[in-house]
Design a protein that fits this description.
Four Helix Bundle (Hemerythrin (Met), subunit A), binds zinc ion, 128 residues, elongated, 56% helix, mainly alpha
Length: 128
């Protein structure tokens, strides 16, 4: 573990992750309101009631569909942020979940919730 993260690094990554998380949560709340808040007839107010068939959606619904896509994305990111904070608790933050190698510093700075080192990320994405 020659390249283990220093405590002060962990502290700053934790701060970044927590900031990201609260910002995402704020975004999600706002977008969920936007997506579901419009007075659509018969809407029950739950995400699962939103029609999923693209063909049934007119352009009017495009914005809503788009927002729901963003919500899905951000929920995924939020999950990864929570996992990263969990890993911090367990002392495995900054380690690749695939090969166990340290994730490079520039990568962590770009994506502090990254699960994999760049090599494994490329491999897993099938980019080769
Ligand atoms: Zn790896």
């Amino acid at each position: 573990m020659a390249s283990a993260l220093k405590n002060e690094d962990l502290v700053s990554y934790r701060r970044i992750l927590q900031t990201l998380r609260s910002r995402l949560r704020g975004d999600l709340d706002r977008m969920t309101d936007e997506a579901l808040g419009r007075p659509a007839a018969g809407a029950s107010g739950s995400v699962s009631s939103v029609p999923l068939h693209m063909a049934d959606l007119g352009t009017e619904n495009y914005d809503q569909e788009f927002t729901l896509g963003l919500i899905e994305n951000e929920q995924g990111t939020l999950g990864m942020i929570n996992e990263a904070l969990d890993r911090m608790e367990h002392g495995t933050f900054g380690q690749c979940a695939e090969c166990g190698e340290a994730i490079s510093r520039p990568r962590l700075q770009a994506i502090p919730y990254a699960r994999h080192c760049i090599r494994c990320a490329r491999k897993l994405e099938g980019g080769e």
